[in-house]
What does this fold into?
Amino acid sequence: MTDRIDTAWNTLGSLPQKTLQQLFEQDGRVEALSGRIEWSSEEGSSGILFDWSKTHLSDDLLDGFETLAGACDFTSKRAALLAGEHINVTEDRAATHTAERGVGAEPAVEEAVALHARMRLLVEAIHQGALGEVNHLIHIGIGGSALGPALAVDALTRDLKLVDVHVVSNIDGVALEQAFDACDPATTMVAVASKTFTTIETMTNAQSALKWLADNGVSDPSGRVVALTASPEKAVEWGVDETRILPFAESVGGRYSIWSSIGFPVALAVGWDEFEAMLAGARAVDEHFRDNDGRDNLCLRAAFADQYYTRLRGCQTRAVFAYDERLGLFPDYLQQLEMESNGKRVLTDGSPVTGPTAPITWGGVGTDAQHAVFQLLHQGTHLIPVDFIASIAPGDALDPAHHAILLTNCFAQGAALMAGGNMAGDGKDPARAFPGDRPSATMLCDDLDATTLGALIAFHEHRVFANAVLMGINPFDQFGVELGKKMAKDIEAGGAEFDASTTALLAKAGLG
Ligand code: F6P
It folds into this structure.
């Protein structure tokens, strides 16, 4: 198999590189490299257009990457993922996030359905006032237990907010104090979201939130806590009543957990139907991912381009710009999904990788980013593939000029990156010259609602998985975060020896 993989990479590396302009000389390029994932609801059919035509993918490259996917056993690895096999080999676990959306092995789907039913009961009981007046939720979690909720709550609560949600992740007390300032303790609930229920930031913040409730006249602070966790026994030990513990499966990874009870703040903020709509959007992508092969599989096609830029063109970063204020947190969310999943240095068998793994994901919101970082994209010395995300339907009710300017800017950036040109009249001023031939992909949503958000997130989950298969790595563990945590504990415990710089810093801060 390794031979076949090496051969496939050698073939890919030997293909002539064409410029985007040359590639666009071929008729039908846009149609060939654009595809939609669609779903239908009571309002009709809707979807997202994935236009990868402004990347350097050519027919030859697509053929070569399809051969690589074959050599990497992509179809059987995808089948293993969906069948609930223990593909997370280092932790000997399955990765069952798709089962949360109803796609996967029957036992995992059944478990997810039962846990969702339990979550729905609690969400609806709170909405109906069974736990008294609840106007605010302080959701405490970090990493995958915070980034998904923060993104979804921010994206979906612009027009509808049944409960005011504040996501707090940082151990820096400033973050928690900010949430306290915005909430009335008499009508506030606290969600403690932690897969392991041991994360120091989360448990410390949760303790302080309980104290804040008690200090502010709440007679039974523990009665205001909901635990979202894959370790329910730890939540019980910590003092949460079993009726307010919403478990999720151990096989759902932290950064893949927005679909599980970690999505509780989303359901509380926008209602159960909207949460289910998010799951439905993800399911539409799961089905697309399961049922399409080669270049017709849009998640795999995106991974082909990702691998091309990272391995064959040496790109060290990929930028993502959401031309939609509601997706302001999407780049943050993607950073964990992509970098924690695929920022690895060994293959699944433990041997060292022979090429680069995940690039650095970064990005921001358009049009703001145009006035800050796009200079480097257009004229800098780094080649940076860019993803644009936008919605045809506006999120605002102001003069349509706002949305028209937003979208035209988005499309103009992609066109300018590709075409290049010279801003000087005579074309002779090098400082005003744009080399062009810089790639971008565009994800154009019909609308940005809960279903679309679910679809966008699931698309990226599968894109990450497809990249991992093509690189031969395990995207579902994250041992790289452990060493720093251990050292922090050692410092706290005292007595451990550190390098001279760290020792001096600790002494300076009065911690040595
Ligand atoms: O430190 C990294 C990490 O383990 C992430 O993978 C995870 O999402 C985050 O910490 C939070 O973990 P937990 O949900 O167990 O508190």
In short: The chain has 19 helices and 13 strands.
